[in-house]
Amino acid sequence: MALGRAFVLLVCLAALAASADHPTIAIPPGLKLASGKRIWETACAACHGSDGKGTPKALAGFDQPRTFPDFTRCDQTTSELDNDYRAIITNGGPFRGFSQIMPAFRQALTPKQINQLIEYLRGFCDASGWPRGELNLPRALVTEKAFPENETVLTSALNAGGAPGVANDIIEENRFGKHDEIEIDVPVNFIHPEHTWYGGFGDASLGLKHEFFSNSRTGSIFAAQGEIILPTGSTAHGIGSGTPSFATFAAFDQLFPTNTFFQVQAGTQQPFDTSKAPRTFFWYNAVGQELYQSHGLGRMWSPMVEFLADRDFLPGAKMNWDVMPEMQVTVSRRQHIRFDVGVRIPATNTAGRDPQVLFYVLWDWQDGRLTEGW
Ligand code: HEC
Known about the structure:
Elements: H1 2-16, H2 36-48, H3 57-60, H4 74-77, H5 82-91, H6 111-122, E1 151-159, E2 165-176, E3 180-191, E4 198-201, E5 205-215, E6 220-229, E7 245-255, E8 260-271, E9 280-289, E10 291-292, H7 293-296, E11 300-312, E12 320-330, E13 337-346, E14 356-363
Antiparallel strand pairs: 1-2, 1-14, 2-3, 3-4, 3-5, 5-6, 6-7, 7-8, 8-9, 9-11, 10-11, 11-12, 12-13, 13-14
Heme C binds near residues 11, 15, 85, 88 and 89.
């Protein structure tokens, strides 16, 4: 074990001496450490503890950052991607906007050893029943995903033709328990019908999502949501329906081993008073690809195309089909702030329906504050 202890000492010295930007551990590779557990004990446990909970402050010799992980907290770790762990272990904390105390192991460990470590860390929560973060696919602009999330999203839709107008939504999604999420959506609209601008709240909604099924091996996840929509918007200005509604949808997402994915969401909105607003049905689809910079460990780009269909339950109503190419990109190093922009192009039934430019800024606040992780 003398070799092991010497390694731990070297790791700690290297961490202390680490340069501000990308600390690396300068240890000749070739330490024959067979299992993930052995590698963990030798290279990681000095700081993270044998049990993965973190070495007590007095022994570790550094101030634990607020985001210091406890690998047995399955509510916090299951949403992290294997790829995030790989990036941090390979390139060190600062590579993903974390503390420089977390060293880079790209010289000390082989990619295979790093994968063994990730598998070992996953062992703490494999049987916990929390859905895995890999199934948390990139959020599309319109199609809602199945994964229960902790995030705040600001979305905007700007009319690219016809009367000027901007429809914004402030969306707050809060996960509770393993499978549930509560969602609040407050629309703030600005319209310009007769040469004067009017701004006001639209119809706010409160939703509850439940994830019924997820399987990280097959890459599938299924959820359903129920929503109450309140008539908070002004009907006089055409940004409110004037009646409460109930809405419900099901969402199924599939991720393939190539990091290609699709998301399907289908549902209906049922107003209490159908003389004020029609019943509608919608069917949304998103197809996309996750692409990573920096040898698969850096910034993620997700080109997507959405195919959006909706129809009023009225005699003679036609199906509206829209196509929307878009691009999502992770803005912060930690990938917890993301931006998506796309153009929604009406494809059928185009009379009176103009193209729109949509974008959002998303903050996955479980991964850090707005000011952290850059
Ligand atoms: C010198 C101490 C030290 C050593 C050695 C060390 N770590 Fe870390 N590690 C940290 C600190 C501190 C953080 C928290 C960084 C932050 O939150 O800003 C961290 C964070 C991490 C994270 C990010 C977790 C998250 O919240 O996303 C992973 C994964 C990780 N370490 C794995 C390892 C592995 C695997 C090893 C061994 C190969 C290792 N660490 C060795 C100090 C260390």
